[in-house]
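Field: sequence (string)
Field: structure_tokens (string)

Example rows 1 and 2, in order.
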Amino acid sequence: MANLIESRENILSLEQAIYEYNVVNMETLCNEKYELWSLLEKIHAWFQKIQLDEIETVFSCDSKTKTEQIALLVQASMDKTWELLNTGTWKNVPEYIKHIYSLLGFYKMATTLLSKSPVDWNLKLMEDCIHMLDKGILLGYNNPHMTKAVELLMGLYNAMVNNGHSEIKSNWAAVTSKSSVVMSSWKITGIRGVAIQELSAPSLLTFQSNFLTVRRPVKLRDCVSHWPALAKWDLAYFRKLAGSRLVPIEIGKKYTDEDWSQRLMSLNRFLDEHMCEHSHAYLAQHDLLSQIPQLKQDIVVPDYCYLHPGDNIDSSLPIGDSTNSSLLTDQSGAEEKQSDGFIHNDENEEETEAHHVDLNMWFGPPGTVTPFHWDAKHNLLVQVLGSKRVLLTGPDSHMYPYEGLLNNTSRVDPELDLDILTREFPDFVKHPGKDLKCETSQSNSKEEAQSSVPHNQTPGHLIECTLNPGDMLYIPPKVWHHVRSLSTSISVSFWF
């Protein structure tokens, strides 16, 4: 009971920081006072009053009635903000509306907890409150104070699991006792590519001059062997660390299909219901590492991400040495600047933006497919768990792109039989674009050499790559790539 009351006090103490964070940003983004602000001020004033009351009086009849009234006010404000979030396109939603929604997510969680005595807190309540915070983070804004609130509730949730909820503990034990990786039954179909060039931890100068500048794909080995994620990341680890967290899941075979959709669900539900072949569910292109900062401790942003084609590099600088300040940003400093979430007018803003790295996670069952598409940024794709097959082809290949918003996505399915491909996409097969100057590495294993043997026919412009744990693939901008998971798979992409 004492621990629960202490946790309740910690939640109340976070309210001031979260309120100030969002109000400062709202004032920066909006010149006029918004109508919902007066409601937020009333809610904030009530929380301030609670913190001045004695802990025993908070659950008196009068106080509980007031809590219920505030909870109704919070819900009404959330309903109004939800309408604004879903009016028009997402990119046109005012930024201050997202800050309001994030703040209201915290208030809904807090009033839900305060409406009950700590002795009545249970796992279902904790999970519901965690989801309220996650909705505020995913649809609004994340910040260190919201992260602390989630970590506090996750601590309570895990403590409850460890104190007598045997059905959940047995589920965790079952996940831990079996292999996390399920292999796909998929057999190679369609066309194949020539084996990609491979290198073991090339120097920064070699990577820049031979690949980054000329935009040539390459598979890199031994660059992330120091990552704790390679030893820690499996399904049991994610379930224990973040099983009750809410995450966005893509539902559908491919995002180009008409029945494709996205849903928010707990990570536990995703693991329980969709971590099997043919489920067609994918946690794709999501910055899970910002939503769950503990995961960032398990990886390191590769130094290659801070290179630029025109930089002058000390040829003696080894991979992993980030001391060349003219080339590489101070990673710890960059993280510190970004961590508070505030809007800064930094005199080095252009340099910071130029070196910004977007991190995304790709987590799914065997058989997930990302169709041929290209990205506007340089991409380092690191495989952490399981394996994937990637096909690549140059920007000038005949790829039959969709029109409109999906013009960076191809209608070509390379896994179709060659006769179907030739009939439906003749230029893709018969008139390949320029190759990507892929030079097969002499160090390729016999198995990898055998895997590059063409099935039916190998168009000269296709490159093929199999990624296993610890492998990193460099994908240049505008290079088309098709990805299939060959097993349960976790990857992290770095766009720069």
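Row 2 begins here:
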Amino acid sequence: MVHSFSSFAQTFTEVESIPFTGTNDGTNIFADIDGDDDLDLLILGDSSGNSDGSGFIAELYSNNGSGVYSLIAGTTFTGVERGSAVFGDVDGDGDLDVIISGDDGPSQITKMYLNDGTGIFTESNTHSFTGVRGDSSLALADVDGDTDLDLLLTGWSGVRTAELHLNDGSGTFTLDATAPFKLYDGGSIDFADVDGDGDNDVLLTGKESVSNAALSELYLNNGSGTFTLDATATATIENVRSSDAQFADIDGDGDLDVIVSGWNESNGATKLYTNASGVFSLHAALEGFTTPRIDFTDLDNDGDMDLVLSGKQVTSGVAETEIYLNDSSGNFTITTDTVLGTRSGDIASADIDGDGDNDLVISGWDETSRNIKLYTNDLVILGVDKSLLSEVVFYPNPTRGILNINFKNNLSINSIKVFNILGREIEVKIINNTVDLSNLSSGIYLLKIDSEFGSIFKRIIKE
């Protein structure tokens, strides 16, 4: 058996016939809602421009496993614009639930829907969250070290709002009135372990209530859910509103770097900061955007995080989407790929068709209409015998803890590594080709196997 490897070639192809509704002021999120090991899609947003909410949608689409989607009729979700959604197993039953916030027309909402495991959702009234809109943000993370998912929300509820709700593990939440966060709308929430101490810190961006201006603040977690402002990082990171931010290890040094983009009260700004043991330094300034959306994702399967950035570009003054490839050291080069340019929209990436590379869905206002497009990634590994992946068997996937790996034909393995969706390597126990994921939170992880013939990548779902 002989395998040869050389370089990558890549283009994106628009899927001509899709059932999705075009929106602006919306959100797109991939998640496996029905446990069939493919990624379904939730779309929120304004499909009509009617301020009474009659065109606000929350539509759920099922994936048949090959990237063909169909609308799931009869979902009970409330349609919203200028909102947010987040999937996570909030009640500990092994499936993905969802929390949705935004403007439903008459008012603002935040609602939790529990999944029965087959993709049927029922609204839960066990806890009343403050309804928020105004480009509201939601994020789930275990902030207090009890292994369940807590909720942080920001947005406009009549006033700017920031609330931390602690989960008891069954999906019952309690408001933490001691949380120190300033009050925000028009921004983002991003959890990450920035200082390497094993807990979830958080970066908030947006328009803040005291100064009535753009602000970006990083709070460090002491491990039990008590947060303290990191004044040094906060002074370093660009203040932005109408903004987005995201963490990823862009330079391969094992810690999480960050990008922020948005309006800084003078202009649109997009800045990358590298992290060295919790100390952030400006790494690069990219094209400025307003109403941006950011997605770090590995588009060329080289093991590092590339970047997709959309919004109203400052230089051109119109909606654009830019794709940057990473050289593994955090240096980004813009590509010539032409995809839908949008503002007041969203970007999401995932391997929708099971071919091992990440595809794209892009929505928003394209300067003419509310639009949405789906692109498949036509990544080609030049000179590669694609049977390499068939030489490895992974089971069970999804897994509740133990993942077994069988190598055919005595394939020689150099290393096995596990990465989270931000590109950070995760420490796991690997013994005799058995990977123990028991201590990891539910979610999607990337397994990288370096063999004598090259690297193999496999998406793993931890239930």
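free_text_note (row 2): The first helix runs from residue 231 to 236.
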